[in-house]
Amino acid sequence: MISIILTLIQTSVADILYQNSFNSTIGIQSIPLNQYCSSLSQENKLRVMLTQQSNNHSLLAICQTNLIDFEKFQTLFQQDNYHDYNCLVDYNAYILENQTQQIVLSQQKMPTLVSQYHNIFSIENNSCFAIIYSKLNSILILTIERIGIDDCVVNCKNQGICIKGFCQCPLGYLGFDCNIVSSNIHQNSYFHGLQIFYLDLITLQTNDYKLILNSELQYTITCYANSSHLLFTSNQNSIIYITEESIIQCKEATERLRVFTQLRYYSQFVIITNTTSVVKLAELEEQYYSIILVISVLASILGVILLFMTLIYLLKIYKAKQAIKNKQQFENLMPAQQFMLVSDRVPEIKVETTCSICLESFKSSSLVRMTYCEHIFHSSCLEKWMKNNKVCPLCRAGLDTQTIQSKKKIEPQNFKGKNGQGSILQQLSFFPKHDGTLHSIDGSLSYHSPVIKSLPINQPKNLN
User: Fold this and answer.
1) What is residue 461's predicted lDDT score, i.e. its pLDDT?
2) In whole angstroms, what separates CA 326 from the centre of its chain?
3) Residue 423 confidence (pLDDT)
């Protein structure tokens, strides 16, 4: 009821020649329009509209002859535009189940290409019939209006522009009034239900076009310049293919259409698909698994890199801890002291006044370290020496941690130096003799000193 009211409001401001509401019956009804076609001038055109109230199961056709044979009328559903019976049908409205179907009639002779695209019926011999086919009983309204030759049938929708009686539609919008929305098939990965797509030939980078699907679906492919009518899906396959020859022909048809109407048209194929199940691109599955494989490989590489970096980090931490531990051991075994304090603990005959490493004289306040072999060096000089050498710079005695610790373990007490409180030389008497084998901090063999064998001393014979 609402659609009928809107139709009445819309047509109230137009030049209405005929309007009638009637009950349709199942089958074919024929309404002659010869009087309107014969009186139509070259400056005007007729708009014939069929509005359905309760259902969308009726089809309007404008034919040159009175087509009342049902079997012949059925062939209209199998064709896209003009037929042997010279009829025109608003397929788009019928397929999309719109409540209103409309066809334009004109006395002007125009190429079939233009007539098909803009849904315009060219009148011949002033003969025309409105043929209505209904599947069910319903209430219909048939309206005939007269409009100017440069007027569009309806207001152009979706930012379409009316130019010389034709709607110039943006890319992606179809129909003589731009009311049908289609999607770019390049941006689609899944198919389900009834869908309308367009293939833009200008941006197509291949000579032909092939779309491989993971299962079959129903589809129809039409060059939009040849017909703006949506067709029933008549093909069923898992491959949608458009040949190079078809693409070239479609571009040529689009150019002919542009030359005649002076409008801008897009070279495009309209692809209608219909499926009850979800169908997707087969190459999308391969791409999906390829992506998964690439991600897995990258994740594995990243995991190895992270593991390697973690091991390096842990190794650095371990080395840092070992360095701290070694430094602590170094400080414990050979603490840094002022020279004046160390010299008090060493017999005067053994006091060294010069560092054997840097050859500079000691000062009373100089920070020095004394080895267990009673040699004194600047603290900084000995530290630098110990980085590359684990022996005493003077006597080549082992200064590795293992050797020093073994010497320290057998110390019975702390010995004092001067003032008659015991000589540091007495300490050495408690140390086992060095066997000439030195070990580094990690326990490996680091130095071999020559083994000096002691020779027995023969006691002089008693002459008595």
Assistant:
1) 46
2) 53
3) 39
